[in-house]
Amino acid sequence: MRFPSPFLVGEGGVAVFADSHLGQVEGDGEDFLTALGGLPGRGFSTVVLLGDVFQYLVGDRKFETPLIRRVLVGLEELAARGVRFRYVEGNRDFFVARSPFARPFAAYGLTDGVAVGSKRYAFVHGDRVNTRDLPYRFWRVLSKNPVSYAVMKLLPGSVARAVVAGTEARLYRTNFKHKSRLPVAHLREEGRRARLAGYDEVLVGHFHVDWVDAGPDGVVRVLPAWLEERRHAEIDPDGTLRLVEEPTAGRARPRAAAPAVPG
């Protein structure tokens, strides 16, 4: 995957949220908006959403739920106040880029990058990092192509929602091996690609674990899932990154199991 030229953050810091999977815990949508709403007052004007904000998000009104509507309206309100949302597509995001659901986002893509102070950070969701996970790659191509989009547009709402729910379940099952063991070699290769593209570090979601690898060819950092830890990354205007735990951490969904990290 190619990384674009970095977006130059003129002022303020950058907050990064990974894998919130909203809709799994009661009140999580409001908690998420509260966390975002507190950022501008603390000097964070750019927010990178590292994919999978919802359990699944399909770019068509027939898939809109009250939760999706409430959160997207909240994002639009924050965008009107000057917050720049940059969305990196996750494996549970389908056909969003050209849909009305993309309105809050200043940028939307498979990869992204920012320059903050003296540092450059690249972003990728992470579901395609492991190039050897062929079953998942097959299902991803099958579910995210123009033919699937055309069929989805033609189906009645109830049928389309059932198809997407089934596809999401298949994606989860085919991707389980990929996520149950952290693909360290592939992550390091992603760090190398980001370094060659001029970035100091690449931030990855998807794996629901806090993990950093700093090697001679690049730095790769896997961010914890907001769903399970209510933590996000904050990059200060000088480029320093830290993880911040939110006051609602006690309401996070307990994690079933973390991916194994090879020794």
Write the topology of this structure.
Elements: E1 7-8, E2 13-17, H1 28-37, E3 44-49, E4 57-58, H2 66-80, E5 84-88, E6 93-94, E7 105-109, E8 111-116, E9 119-124, H3 134-143, H4 146-154, H5 157-180, H6 184-196, E10 201-204, E11 211-215, E12 218-222, H7 226-229, E13 231-235, E14 241-245
Parallel strand pairs: 1-8, 2-3, 3-5, 4-6, 5-7, 9-10, 10-12
Antiparallel strand pairs: 2-13, 8-9, 11-12, 13-14
Helix pairs in contact: 1-2, 3-5
Describe this structure as you would to a colleague.
- This protein is an alpha/beta fold and 263 residues long.
- The chain has one domain: Purple Acid Phosphatase, chain A, domain 2 (4-Layer Sandwich), CATH 3.60.21.
- The protein is 32% helix and 24% strand.
- The protein contains seven helices and 14 strands.
- It has helices at residues 28-37, 66-80, 134-143, 146-154, 157-180, 184-196, 226-229, and strands spanning 7-8, 13-17, 44-49, 57-58, 84-88, 93-94, 105-109, 111-116, 119-124, 201-204, 211-215, 218-222, 231-235, 241-245.
- The strands form three sheets. The chain has a six-stranded mixed beta sheet.
- Helix 1 packs parallel to helix 2 and helix 3 packs antiparallel against helix 5 (157-180).
- The protein is globular, with a radius of gyration of 18 Å.
- The model has no long low-confidence stretch (mean pLDDT 91).
Supply the CATH architecture: 4-Layer Sandwich
How many structural domains in the coordinates? Answer: 1
For the residues shown, what is the average pLDDT?
91
Strand order of the largest sheet: 1-8-9-10-12-11
Report the strand count.
14
**Portion of residues within helices:** 25-40%
Shape: globular
| CATH level-4 homologous superfamily | Metallo-dependent phosphatases
Return the string of H and E elements: EEHEEHEEEEEHHHHEEEHEE
Structural class: alpha/beta
Q: Let me know the largest β-sheet.
A: 6 strands, mixed
In the CATH scheme, the class would be: Alpha Beta
Strand content: 15-25%
Count of separate DSSP helical elements: 7
* N-to-C span: 27 Å
The CATH topology corresponds to Purple Acid Phosphatase, chain A, domain 2
